[in-house]
Amino acid sequence: MTEENGILLDGEVAVRGDRIVYAGPSRPEGTWSPTKKLSGNGKAVLSGFVNCHSHAASLVFRSQSDDGAGGAALYTVAFRAEKDITPDQWRDLAVLGVIDMVKAGITTINDIWYEPEALAEACVQAGLRAQIAYKIFDVRLEELYRQDYTRYPKYGEERLKRGVALVENWHGQKGGLISGRIGPHATDTCSMGLHKEAVAEARRLKVGCHTHVAQSKGEVDYIASEHGKGPAEYLLDIGALDRNSVVAHLTFATQGDLDAVSRAGARNAHCATIYPRRGVYPDIPSIDSRGISWGLATDWMMNDPFEAMRNAMNALRLRQGTFEALSSKQALDRATAASAGVLGLDRDIGRLAAGYKADLIQIDIDQAHLAPFYADYASIAYYARASDVVTSVIDGKVVMEDRRVLGIDEADALAQVRRHLPGWAALMQKLGGTSHPGLCACGHQ
Ligand SMILES: [Zn+2]
Q1: Are the C-beta atoms of residues 394 and 128 closer than 8 Å to each other?
Q2: Ligand 1 centroid distance, CA of 221 (Å)
Q3: Ligand 1 centroid to 263 CA: how many Å?
Q4: How many angstroms separate the alpha carbon of residue 127 from the centre of ligand 1?
Q5: Whose CB among 31, 99, 271, 397 lies 3.0–4.6 Å from 27's, allowing a Cys bridge?
């Protein structure tokens, strides 16, 4: 993703501490005296993927909202189930989500969810770079499916307090591996007062906000009826949008909303896998025509940047009626350097070049589905799979080798999650999810 060295055959990367000191053609034997050397034989080396909008622990909803109900399942299943997932369960889910992300080649996440402290600990354990926010709102999410927007100010204040404490305790920790954001959840789930307070706290703490904007029809309708404008226009008007804001989605944004995002210099996380699943897609040509910065993200349940690249390319090419809508190189850029830009980290991560943080991955290219490997952008963007990522180095540390995440025991993490399955299956069934009624007690069918 650098201007000068697009693709190099027989290249070499040298790392000192947490930074890349050299990335270029192989240097003569003896140039370096490494304490550790990773062979690149049969492997492609890439900058790690930057996931600018994620919910690591949300995998509990896998397959429960994907068919039939589409976007409505967010309100009818997920929002009604979240309150019944215990803190311990969110922790177990976060650990597994972190493993899944590292194994997919993701080296940085920007996450907003429950139990963010547990996620921060899991990220430290795995060595995953993360910006983390606590999910702040003052409605009862479980009541939204019937349009009940009753506000609970005390509840909102408590959440804001915990979100602020998270930033105070974690921002800049582990040499900057973990940073914080303030996370007013969405334009409709925070009252105007709470949203303004959250933004003021973010500015006081000198961190950005992370918010879902124009994500659903329900949100857009609510903001229109309350304020007579679009959700991003509303945020700009209350002073809640700026260059440090990450706005996820913009799926139902109007042209006026996009003007507001552009005027504020806010940045957009584009979650290409979830939109087609719901039968909708954001207006990328209008986002691009305003020069709004956007990067690829996985959102919830799916932690696969390869799938995100392919879905973005296929959806945009189909919608715009041209294969030129998003090239393989552009897709890779959106998943790495551009996504780093969304997080304000583009001087540190997202590129394989001297001076950048040593966040890089190796892909095993010696495989049937990648052969013959022509070593071009499409080889990776259209043919490689998350399961091809064999090595991950983050902040100069090897965090995965031979597909084994070194800091966390994957078998144990799977077992922890499996023991909760019967309870979750019953919960999902009650709410109209699609879990199989015949799950046995051990969690396997
Ligand atoms: Zn989301």
Answers
A1: yes
A2: 19
A3: 23
A4: 23
A5: 31
As given in the structure block, the two tokens for residue 66 are 């994907």
Residues 6+ apart with CB under 8 A from 97: 54, 55, 56, 57, 58, 59, 122, 303
Task: Kindly give the distance from the C-alpha atom of residue 54 to the centroid of ligand 1, in angstroms, as a whole number.
Answer: 6
Centre of ligand 1 from the C-alpha of residue 390, in Å: 27
Please give the single-letter amino acid code of residue 244.
Answer: N
User: 117 C-alpha to center of ligand 1: Å?
Assistant: 18
Q: How many Å apart are CA 230 and CA 220, to the nearest integer? A: 6
How many whole angstroms from 379 Cα to the centroid of ligand 1? 29
**Residue 20 counted as domain residue:** no
How far is CA 125 from each of CA 57, 130, 274, 418, rounded to the nearest angstrom?
16, 12, 28, 21
Q: For residue 103, what pLDDT is reported? A: 98
Report how far ligand 1's centroid is from the alpha carbon of 111 (Å): 9
- Residue-wise pLDDT for 173-221, tens only, equals 999 999 999 999 999 999 999 999 999 999 999 999 999 999 999 999 9
**Ligand 1 centroid to residue 300 C-alpha, Å:** 6
Answer yes or no: pTM beyond 0.85: yes
DSSP type of residue 141: G
Asked if residue 202 is part of any domain, the answer here is: yes
Q: pLDDT tens digits for 318-373? A: 999 999 999 999 999 999 999 999 999 999 999 999 999 999 999 999 999 999 99
Q: How far is the CA of 55 from the centre of ligand 1 (A)?
A: 7
Range of the domain at 130: 48-351
Note the Cα 299 to chain centre separation in Å.
Answer: 5
Per the CB < 8 A criterion, the answer to whether 104 and 304 are in contact is yes
Ligand 1 centroid to 376 CA: how many Å?
32
Q: How many domains does the chain have?
A: 1
Residue 127 lies in a domain: yes
Ligand 1 centre distance from Cα of residue 297 (Å): 9
Q: What is the pLDDT of residues 241-286, one digit of tens each?
A: 999 999 999 999 999 999 999 999 999 999 999 999 888 999 999 9
Q: What distance in angstroms lies between residue 423's CA and the mean position of ligand 1's atoms?
A: 24
Q: pLDDT tens across 86-95, in order?
A: 999 999 999 9
CATH number of the domain enclosing 182: 3.20.20.140
How many whole angstroms from 136 Cα to the centroid of ligand 1? 13
Q: List all residues 6 or more positions away from 342 whose beta carbon is below 8 Å from its beta carbon.
A: 50, 52, 110, 246, 267, 268, 269, 293, 294, 295
Distance 197 CA to ligand 1 centre (A): 21
Structure-derived torsion over alpha carbons of residues 261, 267, 271, 272, reported in degrees to the nearest 10? 80
397-401, strands of its sheet edge to edge: 43-47, 360-364, 389-394, 397-401, 404-405
Give residue 173 CA to ligand 1 midpoint distance, Å. Answer: 24
